[in-house]
Design goal:
With about 110 residues, the protein is mainly α. It has one domain (about 1-90). The protein has helices at about 1-10, 15-30, 40-50, 55-65, 70-95. α1 (about 1-10) runs antiparallel to α2 and α2 (about 15-30) packs across α3. The longest helix is centred in the C-terminal third of the chain and has 26 residues, at about 70-95. The radius of gyration is 19 Å and the shape is elongated. It starts with a helix and ends in an 11-residue tail after the last helix. The relative contact order is 0.12.
């Protein structure tokens, strides 16, 4: 789910619940025995049946808004990883020596 979250945020350039719902569902269907909770299967099925139009509805209907907060932990870890990646990339770019005029390409 972390990979799906990161890919969605990068590609959509914002939080898009429909895109994330679709990614989570497709990822689950690729490997359904990876240790997801037993009830989430119904949520993914509901998302697919509704063509991801109402991404919060299946879980809200099933859990009454009191479902697992595991996704929040995943989101926080993913956002932290993305921030760390971009910080390291920026630092590498700042620390890289500027090309000398004799080696610069035109």
């Amino acid at each position: 789910m972390s990979r799906c979250t990161a890919q969605s945020l990068v590609e959509m350039k914002k939080f898009d619940p429909k895109d994330m719902a679709k990614r989570f569902t497709l990822e689950y269907n690729k490997e359904p025995n990876r240790g997801y909770g037993g009830h989430v299967v119904n949520v993914f099925a509901g998302l697919m049946l509704a063509n991801y139009e109402h991404p919060y509805e299946p879980a809200n209907r099933q859990f009454g808004g009191l479902g697992s907060y595991g996704t929040l932990h995943i989101l926080v870890k993913t956002l932290n990883s993305i921030q760390t990646f971009f910080s390291k990339q920026e630092m590498a770019e700042r620390c890289a020596p500027a090309p000398s005029p004799s080696t610069a390409t035109t």
